[in-house]
């Protein structure tokens, strides 16, 4: 049994709040990123008790499309990136997703202030964000297993 800790968000204060109820979520299965000169949007596929559920597209439809498909024995251990000015707004400029197997990215342009959201020995089981036309900010939910006494 473990607890889930909310980390972040990193980025700007624009856009609307986006969130996921992480109760019963076993793992992140896939992350879709729309990106170009910045991170336009993300969408995440979760496994919740054997059922797969997508988030909405958090952000706008611009940019190219990248899909990160995690293997059944793979989990995310960190999200890293850069935040900076884009079209007059402070947004997420780049994202890199790091798993227990490899790094995916960077997606977008690594310009601006670097940030990192490490799972610190746990695993990332969800995301929260702010978005409008672009991904304004991103944060994580980290599941930390309790150590036996």
Automatic annotation (TrEMBL):
Gene Ontology molecular function, alphabetical: carbohydrate binding
Pfam families: Jacalin
Transmembrane listed as a keyword: no
Domain Jacalin-type lectin stretches: 4-144
Keyword tags: Lectin
UniProt cross-references to SMART domains, sorted A to Z: Jacalin
Annotated PROSITE patterns: JACALIN_LECTIN
Xref: PANTHER family: OS05G0143600 PROTEIN
Name the UniProt record assigns to this protein: Jacalin-type lectin domain-containing protein
């Amino acid at each position: 049994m473990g607890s889930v800790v909310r980390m972040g968000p990193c980025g700007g204060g624009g856009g609307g709040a986006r969130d996921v109820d992480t109760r019963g979520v076993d793992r992140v299965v896939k992350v879709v990123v729309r990106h170009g000169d910045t991170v336009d949007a993300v969408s995440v596929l979760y496994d919740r008790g054997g059922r797969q559920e997508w988030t909405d597209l958090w952000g706008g439809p611009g940019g190219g499309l990248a899909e990160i498909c995690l293997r059944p024995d793979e989990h995310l251990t960190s999200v890293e990136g850069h935040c900076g000015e884009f079209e007059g707004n402070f947004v997420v400029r780049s994202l890199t997703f790091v798993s227990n197997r490899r790094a995916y990215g960077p997606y977008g342009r690594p310009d601006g202030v670097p940030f990192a959201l490490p799972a610190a020995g746990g695993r990332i089981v969800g995301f929260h964000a702010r978005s409008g036309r672009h991904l304004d900010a991103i944060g994580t939910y980290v599941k930390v297993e309790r150590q036996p006494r």
